[in-house]
Design goal:
Shape: elongated
CATH superfamily of the largest domain: Aldolase class I
Order of helices and strands: EHHHEEEEEEHEHEHEHEHHEHEHEHH
Bound molecules: iron/sulfur cluster
CATH class of the largest domain: Alpha Beta
Number of helices: 13
CATH architecture of the largest domain: Alpha-Beta Barrel
Largest sheet: 10 strands, mixed
Strand content: 15-25%
Amino acid sequence: MDKRFCLDLNLNDIKDWCAEKSFPSYRADQLFKWLSTGVICLDDMTNIPKDMRASLSEDFIFDEGMKIEHEFVSQIDGTVKLVFRMYDGHIIETVIMRYKQGLSICISSQAGCKMGCTFCASAHAGFGRNLTGGEMLGQVLLSQKRMNERIRSVVVMGIGEPFDNYDNLMRFIELVTCEEGNNLGSRHITVSTCGLVPKMKEFTALKSQVNLSVSLHAPNDELRKQLMPIANKYSLDELIKACDEYIKATNRRITFEYSLFDGVNDGPESARELYRLLRGLHCHVNLIAANEFPGSPYKRSRKEHIEAFRSSLERYKINATLRREMGTDIMAACGQLRRGLEQ
Ligand code: SF4
Protein backbone atom coordinates (compact mmCIF):
# COMPACT_ATOMS: atom_id res chain seq x y z
CA MET A 1 0.00 0.00 0.00
CA ASP A 2 1.64 3.30 -1.03
CA LYS A 3 -0.83 5.38 0.93
CA ARG A 4 -1.22 4.49 4.61
CA PHE A 5 -4.57 3.31 5.96
CA CYS A 6 -6.08 6.01 8.19
CA LEU A 7 -6.27 3.73 11.25
CA ASP A 8 -2.52 3.13 11.08
CA LEU A 9 -2.02 6.72 12.19
CA ASN A 10 -1.63 7.59 15.83
CA LEU A 11 -2.38 11.04 17.21
CA ASN A 12 1.23 12.21 16.78
CA ASP A 13 1.27 11.11 13.12
CA ILE A 14 -1.88 13.14 12.51
CA LYS A 15 -0.48 16.14 14.37
CA ASP A 16 2.70 15.99 12.27
CA TRP A 17 0.63 15.78 9.09
CA CYS A 18 -1.51 18.78 10.17
CA ALA A 19 1.64 20.82 10.91
CA GLU A 20 3.13 19.90 7.55
CA LYS A 21 -0.06 20.90 5.73
CA SER A 22 -0.62 24.01 7.89
CA PHE A 23 -3.86 22.83 9.46
CA PRO A 24 -4.31 23.83 13.13
CA SER A 25 -3.43 21.13 15.63
CA TYR A 26 -6.97 20.95 17.08
CA ARG A 27 -8.01 19.52 13.69
CA ALA A 28 -5.77 16.55 14.47
CA ASP A 29 -7.72 15.94 17.70
CA GLN A 30 -11.00 16.15 15.81
CA LEU A 31 -9.88 13.68 13.15
CA PHE A 32 -8.42 11.28 15.74
CA LYS A 33 -11.70 11.35 17.65
CA TRP A 34 -13.65 10.33 14.56
CA LEU A 35 -11.22 7.52 13.77
CA SER A 36 -11.22 6.26 17.35
CA THR A 37 -15.00 5.86 17.24
CA GLY A 38 -14.80 3.79 14.07
CA VAL A 39 -15.85 6.57 11.69
CA ILE A 40 -13.47 6.14 8.74
CA CYS A 41 -15.58 7.68 5.97
CA LEU A 42 -14.40 11.25 5.34
CA ASP A 43 -17.90 12.38 4.29
CA ASP A 44 -19.18 11.51 7.78
CA MET A 45 -16.59 13.71 9.52
CA THR A 46 -18.85 16.72 9.55
CA ASN A 47 -16.62 19.08 11.55
CA ILE A 48 -13.58 18.57 9.29
CA PRO A 49 -13.45 21.30 6.60
CA LYS A 50 -13.72 20.29 2.96
CA ASP A 51 -10.19 21.34 1.96
CA MET A 52 -8.71 19.25 4.77
CA ARG A 53 -10.82 16.24 3.77
CA ALA A 54 -9.63 16.59 0.18
CA SER A 55 -6.04 16.78 1.32
CA LEU A 56 -6.48 13.76 3.62
CA SER A 57 -7.96 11.66 0.83
CA GLU A 58 -4.92 12.41 -1.33
CA ASP A 59 -2.53 11.16 1.34
CA PHE A 60 -4.36 8.32 3.11
CA ILE A 61 -6.80 5.47 2.56
CA PHE A 62 -10.10 5.86 4.41
CA ASP A 63 -13.25 3.71 4.22
CA GLU A 64 -12.12 2.06 0.98
CA GLY A 65 -9.41 0.43 3.16
CA MET A 66 -11.78 -2.05 4.77
CA LYS A 67 -15.48 -2.60 4.30
CA ILE A 68 -17.91 -5.03 5.90
CA GLU A 69 -18.78 -7.32 2.99
CA HIS A 70 -20.89 -9.91 4.83
CA GLU A 71 -22.38 -10.27 8.23
CA PHE A 72 -23.61 -13.50 9.83
CA VAL A 73 -25.56 -13.54 13.08
CA SER A 74 -25.93 -16.76 15.04
CA GLN A 75 -29.55 -17.65 15.70
CA ILE A 76 -28.35 -19.69 18.69
CA ASP A 77 -26.47 -17.14 20.81
CA GLY A 78 -26.19 -13.89 18.85
CA THR A 79 -22.50 -14.34 17.97
CA VAL A 80 -21.68 -12.11 14.99
CA LYS A 81 -19.18 -12.88 12.27
CA LEU A 82 -18.07 -9.97 10.09
CA VAL A 83 -16.32 -10.57 6.79
CA PHE A 84 -14.21 -7.60 5.69
CA ARG A 85 -12.95 -6.90 2.21
CA MET A 86 -9.69 -4.96 2.25
CA TYR A 87 -8.69 -2.28 -0.30
CA ASP A 88 -6.77 -4.87 -2.35
CA GLY A 89 -9.49 -7.54 -2.41
CA HIS A 90 -8.22 -9.68 0.47
CA ILE A 91 -10.87 -11.10 2.77
CA ILE A 92 -10.57 -11.41 6.55
CA GLU A 93 -12.96 -12.57 9.26
CA THR A 94 -13.75 -11.20 12.70
CA VAL A 95 -16.00 -12.82 15.30
CA ILE A 96 -17.80 -10.94 18.09
CA MET A 97 -19.07 -12.94 21.05
CA ARG A 98 -21.14 -11.95 24.03
CA TYR A 99 -20.04 -13.10 27.47
CA LYS A 100 -21.29 -12.19 30.94
CA GLN A 101 -18.49 -9.59 31.18
CA GLY A 102 -19.48 -8.00 27.85
CA LEU A 103 -18.40 -8.26 24.24
CA SER A 104 -15.26 -10.11 23.21
CA ILE A 105 -13.78 -10.05 19.74
CA CYS A 106 -11.56 -12.52 17.90
CA ILE A 107 -9.55 -10.71 15.23
CA SER A 108 -7.39 -11.85 12.30
CA SER A 109 -3.73 -10.84 12.07
CA GLN A 110 -3.06 -11.94 8.48
CA ALA A 111 -5.09 -12.59 5.34
CA GLY A 112 -4.42 -16.33 5.39
CA CYS A 113 -1.63 -18.15 7.16
CA LYS A 114 1.72 -19.72 6.29
CA MET A 115 1.89 -22.11 9.22
CA GLY A 116 0.13 -24.99 7.50
CA CYS A 117 -1.54 -26.66 10.50
CA THR A 118 -3.17 -29.73 9.01
CA PHE A 119 -6.45 -29.29 10.91
CA CYS A 120 -7.00 -25.64 9.95
CA ALA A 121 -9.22 -24.24 7.21
CA SER A 122 -7.16 -21.02 7.04
CA ALA A 123 -4.04 -23.02 6.21
CA HIS A 124 -5.91 -24.77 3.39
CA ALA A 125 -6.95 -21.41 1.94
CA GLY A 126 -3.30 -20.24 1.64
CA PHE A 127 -1.50 -17.02 2.56
CA GLY A 128 -2.41 -13.58 1.21
CA ARG A 129 -0.53 -10.91 3.16
CA ASN A 130 0.14 -9.46 6.59
CA LEU A 131 -2.41 -7.07 8.05
CA THR A 132 -1.18 -3.73 9.32
CA GLY A 133 -1.72 -2.65 12.92
CA GLY A 134 -4.43 -0.28 11.71
CA GLU A 135 -6.25 -3.08 9.90
CA MET A 136 -6.26 -5.09 13.11
CA LEU A 137 -7.49 -2.02 14.99
CA GLY A 138 -10.14 -1.50 12.30
CA GLN A 139 -11.66 -4.88 13.12
CA VAL A 140 -12.13 -3.72 16.72
CA LEU A 141 -13.35 -0.19 15.99
CA LEU A 142 -15.71 -1.07 13.12
CA SER A 143 -17.13 -3.96 15.16
CA GLN A 144 -17.70 -1.65 18.12
CA LYS A 145 -19.52 0.77 15.86
CA ARG A 146 -21.57 -2.02 14.27
CA MET A 147 -22.56 -3.41 17.70
CA ASN A 148 -23.03 0.08 19.15
CA GLU A 149 -21.28 -1.21 22.25
CA ARG A 150 -17.76 -1.16 23.63
CA ILE A 151 -15.69 -4.30 23.20
CA ARG A 152 -14.25 -5.47 26.53
CA SER A 153 -11.66 -7.97 25.38
CA VAL A 154 -9.68 -8.78 22.25
CA VAL A 155 -8.17 -12.11 21.30
CA VAL A 156 -5.77 -12.25 18.36
CA MET A 157 -6.75 -15.79 17.45
CA GLY A 158 -8.51 -15.45 14.10
CA ILE A 159 -6.93 -16.07 10.71
CA GLY A 160 -3.11 -15.88 10.75
CA GLU A 161 -0.18 -16.35 13.12
CA PRO A 162 0.25 -13.04 14.99
CA PHE A 163 3.95 -13.62 15.83
CA ASP A 164 4.62 -14.13 12.11
CA ASN A 165 3.53 -10.50 11.76
CA TYR A 166 5.25 -9.29 14.92
CA ASP A 167 5.91 -5.59 14.22
CA ASN A 168 2.36 -4.96 13.00
CA LEU A 169 1.01 -6.84 16.02
CA MET A 170 3.03 -4.57 18.32
CA ARG A 171 1.73 -1.51 16.50
CA PHE A 172 -1.83 -2.83 16.92
CA ILE A 173 -1.31 -3.24 20.67
CA GLU A 174 0.05 0.31 20.88
CA LEU A 175 -2.94 1.68 18.91
CA VAL A 176 -5.72 -0.23 20.65
CA THR A 177 -4.40 0.60 24.14
CA CYS A 178 -3.73 4.30 23.37
CA GLU A 179 -5.25 6.37 26.19
CA GLU A 180 -6.46 9.19 23.93
CA GLY A 181 -7.94 6.63 21.55
CA ASN A 182 -9.61 3.29 22.20
CA ASN A 183 -7.91 2.91 25.60
CA LEU A 184 -8.26 -0.85 26.10
CA GLY A 185 -6.26 -2.27 29.04
CA SER A 186 -3.40 -4.62 28.06
CA ARG A 187 -4.80 -7.25 30.41
CA HIS A 188 -7.87 -7.44 28.17
CA ILE A 189 -5.82 -8.52 25.16
CA THR A 190 -4.74 -12.10 24.44
CA VAL A 191 -2.31 -13.09 21.70
CA SER A 192 -2.41 -16.68 20.52
CA THR A 193 0.61 -18.28 18.87
CA CYS A 194 1.28 -21.71 17.39
CA GLY A 195 4.69 -21.48 19.08
CA LEU A 196 7.20 -19.25 17.26
CA VAL A 197 9.77 -19.58 20.05
CA PRO A 198 12.12 -16.66 19.18
CA LYS A 199 9.17 -14.25 18.95
CA MET A 200 7.75 -15.60 22.21
CA LYS A 201 11.08 -14.70 23.84
CA GLU A 202 11.00 -11.23 22.31
CA PHE A 203 7.45 -10.79 23.60
CA THR A 204 8.44 -12.03 27.07
CA ALA A 205 11.25 -9.47 27.21
CA LEU A 206 8.65 -6.69 26.92
CA LYS A 207 7.11 -7.83 30.23
CA SER A 208 3.77 -6.51 29.05
CA GLN A 209 0.49 -7.37 30.66
CA VAL A 210 -0.91 -8.80 27.41
CA ASN A 211 -1.98 -12.43 27.88
CA LEU A 212 -0.28 -15.20 25.96
CA SER A 213 -2.00 -18.29 24.69
CA VAL A 214 -0.20 -21.17 22.96
CA SER A 215 -1.79 -23.61 20.53
CA LEU A 216 -0.47 -26.93 21.76
CA HIS A 217 -2.88 -29.57 20.40
CA ALA A 218 -0.51 -32.48 21.05
CA PRO A 219 1.37 -33.83 24.09
CA ASN A 220 4.42 -35.15 22.21
CA ASP A 221 6.65 -34.01 19.35
CA GLU A 222 5.74 -36.84 16.99
CA LEU A 223 2.02 -36.13 17.08
CA ARG A 224 2.55 -32.37 17.11
CA LYS A 225 4.60 -32.62 13.91
CA GLN A 226 1.66 -34.35 12.24
CA LEU A 227 -0.73 -31.61 13.25
CA MET A 228 1.50 -28.53 13.17
CA PRO A 229 4.53 -28.19 10.85
CA ILE A 230 6.00 -25.54 13.20
CA ALA A 231 6.83 -28.46 15.55
CA ASN A 232 9.56 -29.49 13.07
CA LYS A 233 11.29 -26.24 13.83
CA TYR A 234 10.81 -25.93 17.59
CA SER A 235 10.55 -28.96 19.86
CA LEU A 236 8.07 -29.18 22.72
CA ASP A 237 11.02 -28.96 25.05
CA GLU A 238 12.01 -25.56 23.60
CA LEU A 239 8.39 -24.43 23.51
CA ILE A 240 7.65 -25.30 27.13
CA LYS A 241 10.90 -23.62 28.23
CA ALA A 242 9.83 -20.43 26.43
CA CYS A 243 6.42 -20.65 28.16
CA ASP A 244 8.10 -21.07 31.54
CA GLU A 245 10.26 -18.00 30.87
CA TYR A 246 7.14 -15.98 30.01
CA ILE A 247 5.39 -17.08 33.22
CA LYS A 248 8.42 -16.23 35.36
CA ALA A 249 9.09 -12.87 33.69
CA THR A 250 5.49 -11.64 33.74
CA ASN A 251 3.99 -13.45 36.73
CA ARG A 252 1.10 -14.28 34.45
CA ARG A 253 -0.58 -17.59 33.81
CA ILE A 254 -0.29 -19.01 30.31
CA THR A 255 -3.14 -20.68 28.43
CA PHE A 256 -2.70 -23.75 26.25
CA GLU A 257 -5.22 -24.41 23.50
CA TYR A 258 -5.82 -28.12 22.95
CA SER A 259 -8.25 -29.16 20.19
CA LEU A 260 -9.50 -32.69 20.58
CA PHE A 261 -9.55 -34.87 17.45
CA ASP A 262 -11.26 -38.23 17.45
CA GLY A 263 -8.77 -41.06 17.97
CA VAL A 264 -5.77 -38.75 17.43
CA ASN A 265 -5.01 -36.87 20.67
CA ASP A 266 -8.04 -37.53 22.88
CA GLY A 267 -7.17 -40.86 24.59
CA PRO A 268 -6.09 -41.53 28.20
CA GLU A 269 -2.41 -41.87 27.16
CA SER A 270 -2.50 -38.38 25.61
CA ALA A 271 -4.00 -37.00 28.85
CA ARG A 272 -1.19 -38.64 30.82
CA GLU A 273 1.47 -37.26 28.48
CA LEU A 274 -0.07 -33.82 28.69
CA TYR A 275 0.08 -33.99 32.46
CA ARG A 276 3.79 -34.95 32.33
CA LEU A 277 4.47 -32.07 29.96
CA LEU A 278 2.64 -29.38 31.91
CA ARG A 279 2.99 -30.38 35.55
CA GLY A 280 4.34 -27.58 37.69
CA LEU A 281 3.60 -24.87 35.11
CA HIS A 282 1.31 -21.98 36.07
CA CYS A 283 -1.12 -22.67 33.23
CA HIS A 284 -4.63 -23.31 32.11
CA VAL A 285 -5.69 -25.74 29.39
CA ASN A 286 -8.49 -24.71 27.10
CA LEU A 287 -9.98 -27.87 25.61
CA ILE A 288 -11.71 -27.34 22.28
CA ALA A 289 -14.16 -29.64 20.55
CA ALA A 290 -12.44 -29.29 17.16
CA ASN A 291 -14.28 -27.78 14.21
CA GLU A 292 -14.66 -30.05 11.22
CA PHE A 293 -14.59 -28.64 7.72
CA PRO A 294 -14.93 -30.31 4.32
CA GLY A 295 -11.63 -31.87 3.29
CA SER A 296 -10.27 -32.01 6.84
CA PRO A 297 -8.60 -35.33 7.68
CA TYR A 298 -9.80 -35.07 11.29
CA LYS A 299 -13.10 -35.63 13.05
CA ARG A 300 -14.11 -33.88 16.21
CA SER A 301 -13.69 -35.93 19.36
CA ARG A 302 -16.75 -37.71 20.73
CA LYS A 303 -18.58 -36.15 23.67
CA GLU A 304 -17.75 -38.98 26.08
CA HIS A 305 -14.05 -38.83 25.11
CA ILE A 306 -13.93 -35.07 25.63
CA GLU A 307 -15.47 -35.46 29.08
CA ALA A 308 -13.11 -38.34 29.99
CA PHE A 309 -10.11 -36.25 28.85
CA ARG A 310 -11.21 -33.28 30.92
CA SER A 311 -11.79 -35.45 34.02
CA SER A 312 -8.34 -37.05 33.62
CA LEU A 313 -6.69 -33.63 33.62
CA GLU A 314 -8.75 -32.69 36.66
CA ARG A 315 -7.52 -35.81 38.45
CA TYR A 316 -3.95 -34.85 37.52
CA LYS A 317 -4.64 -31.39 38.98
CA ILE A 318 -4.14 -29.68 35.63
CA ASN A 319 -6.41 -26.67 35.41
CA ALA A 320 -8.64 -27.33 32.36
CA THR A 321 -11.97 -26.20 30.98
CA LEU A 322 -13.90 -27.06 27.86
CA ARG A 323 -14.29 -23.95 25.73
CA ARG A 324 -17.92 -22.97 25.39
CA GLU A 325 -18.94 -23.33 21.77
CA MET A 326 -20.41 -20.18 20.34
CA GLY A 327 -22.09 -19.38 17.07
CA THR A 328 -21.84 -22.96 15.86
CA ASP A 329 -24.41 -22.25 13.13
CA ILE A 330 -22.18 -19.56 11.59
CA MET A 331 -18.79 -21.11 12.36
CA ALA A 332 -19.00 -23.99 9.90
CA ALA A 333 -17.31 -21.96 7.19
CA CYS A 334 -14.68 -20.41 9.49
CA GLY A 335 -11.50 -19.64 7.55
CA GLN A 336 -12.97 -21.03 4.36
CA LEU A 337 -14.95 -18.01 3.30
CA ARG A 338 -11.73 -16.36 2.18
CA ARG A 339 -11.05 -18.94 -0.48
CA GLY A 340 -14.53 -18.58 -1.94
CA LEU A 341 -14.74 -14.78 -1.78
CA GLU A 342 -11.27 -13.61 -2.85
CA GLN A 343 -10.77 -12.99 -6.50
S1 SF4 B 1 -4.21 -22.92 13.31
FE1 SF4 B 1 -3.50 -20.78 13.39
S2 SF4 B 1 -1.30 -20.95 13.00
FE2 SF4 B 1 -2.17 -22.90 12.33
S3 SF4 B 1 -2.59 -22.61 10.13
FE3 SF4 B 1 -4.47 -22.08 11.25
S4 SF4 B 1 -4.38 -19.85 11.52
FE4 SF4 B 1 -2.29 -20.58 11.03
